């Protein structure tokens, strides 16, 4: 059979590999071909198959990731009405993703499209639970601001603890439900498990550190911000309601 590609005669060489890192395999193969194969004039090599699909998906992710982060930032700004609080919530959530990186490393998964999809889902859940925590913290602080004629720095830790305790049970329930739904995927062996496992791994690992982030890190950052605002004399009740 005579086949052509783009108007040029083409010959296909099929390669089957058991490695999960297709991109790394192609990079090493390219180096080996460049060292040992001298292409005659008019000849060219093109790597296709799963590698080509992976490259295309990576290019799409390069466009989608900034778009996703921009949309999340806009939603946070509309919620808090503050660029500083929206930025801090987005940046602090990075800590919540460390558990996903650790579990991904332990299971031996390389960064792929499926893994990045898992991280996007984890980031969304972590931001959502962080926003709810901040809403509860604002609500507890607003009650003290409206009830007291003058708020002191000693009142801030009490309001922070009061708001974070209200969020303890919902957060633990969220983590438990997500873990119960995704952990069985990690030891599944059926059809599609090779795709679902890299997606589930970052979410399962990240939910553990996400719980620590929401219950510990977020209240601490909230306290530091409000203490600074109190010292500057700019602390006032927020306009947020729990429905957000």
Structure summary:
The chain is mostly helical.
Structure description:
The longest helix is centred in the last third of the chain and has 40 residues, at 193-232. The protein has a single domain, classed as Multidrug efflux transporter AcrB transmembrane fold (Up-down Bundle), CATH 1.20.1640.10. It is elongated, with a radius of gyration of 25 Å. The relative contact order is 0.12. It has 244 residues and is mostly helical. The protein has helices at 22-36, 50-80, 83-96, 98-107, 113-147, 155-166, 168-186, 193-232, and strands at 4-5, 8-9. A hairpin with a 2-residue loop joins β1 and β2 (8-9).
What is the secondary structure topology, with strand pairs?
Blueprint: E1 4-5, E2 8-9, H1 22-36, H2 50-80, H3 83-96, H4 98-107, H5 113-147, H6 155-166, H7 168-186, H8 193-232
Antiparallel strand pairs: 1-2
CATH hierarchy class name:
Mainly Alpha
Overall geometry comes to elongated
CATH topological fold name: Multidrug efflux transporter AcrB transmembrane fold
* Biggest beta-sheet profile: 2 strands, antiparallel
Label the CATH architecture.
Answer: Up-down Bundle
Counting DSSP H or I runs of 4 or more residues, the number of helices is 8
| H/E series | EEHHHHHHHH
- What share of the residues does DSSP label as strand, in percent? under 5%
Class from secondary-structure proportions: mainly alpha
Gap from first CA to last CA: 64 Å
Estimate percent helicity.
Answer: over 70%
Please identify which CATH superfamily we are dealing with.
Answer: Multidrug efflux transporter AcrB transmembrane domain
Average pLDDT: 81
Secondary structure tally: strands: 2
Report low-confidence residues grouped into runs of 5 or more. Answer: 240-244
């Amino acid at each position: 059979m005579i086949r052509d590609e783009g108007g040029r005669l083409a010959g296909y060489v099929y390669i089957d590999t058991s490695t999960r890192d297709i991109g790394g395999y192609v990079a090493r193969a390219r180096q080996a071909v460049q060292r040992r194969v001298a292409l005659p004039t008019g000849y060219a090599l093109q790597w296709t198959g799963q590698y080509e699909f992976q490259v295309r998906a990576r290019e799409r992710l390069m466009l989608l990731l900034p778009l996703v982060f921009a949309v999340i930032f806009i939603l946070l700004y509309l919620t808090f009405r503050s660029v500083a609080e929206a930025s801090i919530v987005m940046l602090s959530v990075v800590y919540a993703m460390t558990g996903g990186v650790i579990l991904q490393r332990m299971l031996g998964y390389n960064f792929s499209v499926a893994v990045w999809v898992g991280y996007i889902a984890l980031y969304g859940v972590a931001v959502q639970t962080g926003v709810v925590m901040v809403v509860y913290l604002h609500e507890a602080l607003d009650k003290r601001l409206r009830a007291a004629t003058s708020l002191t720095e000693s009142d801030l830790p009490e309001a922070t603890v009061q708001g974070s305790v209200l969020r303890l049970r919902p957060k633990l329930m969220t983590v438990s439900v997500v873990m119960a739904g995704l952990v069985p995927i990690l030891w599944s062996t059926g059809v599609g498990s090779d795709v679902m496992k890299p997606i589930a791994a970052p979410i399962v690992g990240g939910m553990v550190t996400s719980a620590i982030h929401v219950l510990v890190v977020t209240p601490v950052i909230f306290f530091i911000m409000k203490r600074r605002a109190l010292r500057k004399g700019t602390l006032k009740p927020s306009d947020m309601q729990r429905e957000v």
